[in-house]
Amino acid sequence: MSVTTLSSPCRRPLGAHMSIAGGHCKAVERALRVGADALQVFTRNQVRWESPPLNAEEAVRFCGLVKSSRIRFVCAHASYLINLASPDLEVFTKSRRALIEELRRAQALGCSGLVLHPGSGKGDDPMRARHRLVDALGEALDKTASLKVRLLLENTAGQGAVLGASIEELGGLLADLQWPQRTGVCLDTAHLFAAGYDFRDHRKARGLLTAVRRCIGIEHIHVLHLNDSRHACGSRRDRHWHIGEGEIGRQGFANLLGFSEFGGIPGIIETPKGDSADLDRDKQNLDTLRMVEGQADCHEHFDSQ
Ligand SMILES: [Zn+2]
Ligand SMILES: [Zn+2]
Known about the structure:
Strand content: 5-15%
CATH superfamily: Divalent-metal-dependent TIM barrel enzymes
Structural class: alpha/beta
Bound molecules: zinc ion
Number of domains: 1
Radius of gyration: 19 Å
Order of helices and strands: EHEHEHEHEHEHHEEEHEH
CATH architecture: Alpha-Beta Barrel
Largest sheet: 8 strands, parallel, barrel
């Protein structure tokens, strides 16, 4: 029987990744519209290498808006273009520069962390790819040593030659960086599931928790990306789906959110937005998560009677 302390369902900041179309302040409005108290944004247009500098006034306005709102957690997600494991010198060079710039932007926006995918070696020797990644991450941390914002490595679905699909590998990367106060991990449920962690099963979910505790340390998990998966467990395909409507289903989320160890860790959905201008799909997905989490608490309590 597990000993799990009862937790209030509203304790975990819960929110969504929101578009910055129209400026960063619009993302805050969008988050508040869906009842979120956590928010994730891109620091800039994520599909281009070059962006105009961050508007300092807009950044100050953004921080002020967040502060005066119910939002308790803000993080940024780095551009998908960045690949610090790339064997292509041009991509690698651009990525190194872009990461440093994104860390500075994330700090200016008051973000506690910048989520980054570890990247792909694209068929190059995996050890060489990993070496490039660790070197470049270390350089970015060195060059932004005065900042507080954390670099949060996100686990991946394991598609192609991407790094970071296993808990052990992520833990190893963190250990090599040797910068605990500036680094951490973002765990994405859809990626965990696609990479083969079948946490629909309570016992396997416990095993995952044990691996996280041993290889990373719960205190180094700073955000959860809560996404259901369109594809099967172990498919190594990265396609997010609506909470409870994908292959993970409600039980999988109940198992993870029911762990008191993950209790206060903020959760962010990155599920399809749908057509509604009112972001109804986000509202529904957040409602489902709150319900699942509430039920998970009762379930654990019942379990331990
Ligand atoms: Zn994610
Ligand atoms: Zn994904």
